[in-house]
Structure formats: C-alpha cells, structure tokens
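Sequence in, structure out.
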Amino acid sequence: MYEWYPSECCPKNYPIELVSASFIAADSSEVSIPGKSVINNGWGEIGSTYLIEPEQKPLPSSLDIQWFSYRENKFYGGHFDLDESRIRQLFEQGYTSRDDLKKQQFDRILVGLAPRGGVSIWVKGEWTTILVQQFKASEISVNWGDFTEGLPTPRAAYVRGQLETFLDDAALATLKDSSFQIPNYWMDVYPKTYNWQPKMVTKLQLSHTTASYFDGEKDLLLPAELSLGKTPRALPESISVYWTDSLGQSRGAEIKFSLTEWLAAIALIGKDSTQAMNLQIEIGNTGSVVGVFLSNATQVTQFKKVEISRF
C-alpha cells in the first residue's frame, strides 16, 4: 500500500476534458481522476487534485480513460495495462529531496493526454518526475448531450467558445490557418533519449541543478551527481542552476532551450548515438551564463537561441 494521488495533464493550448478516468488495481479497486473541467495546464504538470480516501492504497495495474480533445473536436478512449512492477520499483526507490537531501517517495501518478490519442503515464514527486509508459487511444463516440449534460449550445459554438477561452493569441491564430497541422511531438519527438550529460564550468559554489525535459520529466542533480544521474536522457526544455554567493545568499539562473535548436545540434553532434555528449554550461564569477555548448570528443556547437534569466 502506498500514499498517492491521481492527476491529469495535457499540452498547453491543446485543452481536453475528461469524460471518465480510473486507475484500477489488481484487486479491482479503483481510483478516479476528477473530471467535468477543462484542463490546459502543460505537459507533465499537475492538473486536478482529488484527495481520495484512504490515503494508503494499492498501486494501479491498468487505466480506463475517455476524454474530449477540443482542438480536434474528437473523443478518445481506451483501457491500458500499466507496468505495475516498474511503478512499484520507482515508489520503493523514491528520489532525493532538495530541501534535506533525504529520500522522498513519489506521491502522484499522472496521466497526460495529447492530440491524436496520445497517452503518457508518469510517477511524480516534488522534485522528480519520471515517464513510465506511453499508449495510443482510439477515437470513440460519446453522446454530445450526455457530455455537456444537456447544454443547448450547438457543438461547434460550444467548442469554439472553449478554445477562445483557453488558447493564447498565437494558438488562436492557428485556428484560422488552413495549412496548420497539429503536431505529434509528445509521442514521436519528446520521448526520444540521447546519450548526453550536463557539465558545469564555473568557480561558483553550486548547490544543485534542476532540469525539466520536453517529455514531461523533471530531475534534480546535486553537484556530485552532475556527471552521473540517468543516461540516456530526453532533451531538456530548461535547466536551472543554483549556487551560493559570497554573502551566503542563494542565487540561480534558468536556461530555456528551443526544440528546433536542440534537434539541429543533435543532428550535428549526435549522429553517432553511441558517442557521449556533454551539455556544457559556462557560468562566470558574477553568475552570468557565458555560454551553452553541446560537444562530443571531436565537435562542438554553441546554443545561440537560449533564453536566460537570473534570480
């Protein structure tokens, strides 16, 4: 038995709404994910939270889920067998807390719902998120009146209204672009892993580094673990580096990456998938990020489109 809670997510600007969703354990007990609200929270992020009793419950062995994709105006659903042994292994293994450097247990199982029926399953804690499995749901038929609980608004108008409420301006503009095609990054591109390691070049006293990956995973690395950790890894969407300044104050810098630039760098430096790569981040004595590079034993390329913020 473990203390855990369910939640759901979707890519930002691709809002969804659950019809029904339940994690099912081997003993046939069920833990439902809350529905009846539009989710637009971001890939790998916590959505609804439902504090289900009892706190201690068995880990799930399957997922039964149905949802509506507003961008596609389609319903999807399916029943999927989960890798219960892998989930249990991760719950037993836990992760390191940044606050006290002690072992913490994962406390959430998160399901991500992407366009074209994509389904991802993560285990999640405060500092670490790990992708466990991915599935492909099928398009299904759901009675529209049942879904909207009898709301008289026509389907097209209802969907359009929700999109205008939840999409940002750039995403709304794509609705008028007949050439725009919904991507499948979340299933085809983001989960791919590469043989790279972070490498910090600095004289500052680093305390820890966090990474958020395009595939929804998150990682915490202490200075001694920077050259260790898991490998291969997915590509990072952002990396934050923390240090202590001369006055004993905690400082940091966040580096946000462009997926396009990452893929170009991999095409140049990572052609040989067996060759290790270093993501080298150079930080000056004042805390300014001097440069970010991807290199292997013989080649190096600089990231020029990164967004850097200090805090």
